[in-house]
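Quick start: what a row looks like.
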Amino acid sequence: MLRRSSLAVLPGVLLAAQSRAQTGPQPRLPAEPLVIVARDGARHEFRVEVATSPEQQTVGLMFRESVGPSEGMLFDWGGPRESSMWMRNTLVPLDMLFIAADGRLHRIAERTVPHSLSPVDSRGPVRATLELAGGTAERLNLRVGDRVLHRVFGTAP
């Protein structure tokens, strides 16, 4: 759930956030509507927490015991950049959807492994990363190129 590049940029903030994360999940962040429009026109609606600060992004969905079928967390990187995530202290499998600045799905990493320290990379610059319950991308037949409607991309639903 962490951008590995944060280690070099904000070491003090990272250590403080990791210390807090060790005791349990962060309080729920404010949720906003997000819609994914599949290539067949199907609209999939979610309520997502939006992680914008380095502290929120470091903790992410760590220690959460579940993620509902229409819930998730959107990591807004503030501008296009490489995104590298991991599953440290994450208890449930997640689908990670890497979203380009224009709101199109750039890459989908399905069913990431709980507690894994292996990096899950965007493989190109993205504006945001969306974490959903593991299996959601397959269940909804989401594909690279599908559109994401949210204020971060200027396409609020």
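That is the whole record. The chain has four helices and nine strands. Helices lie at 6-9, 11-21, 54-59, 136-139.
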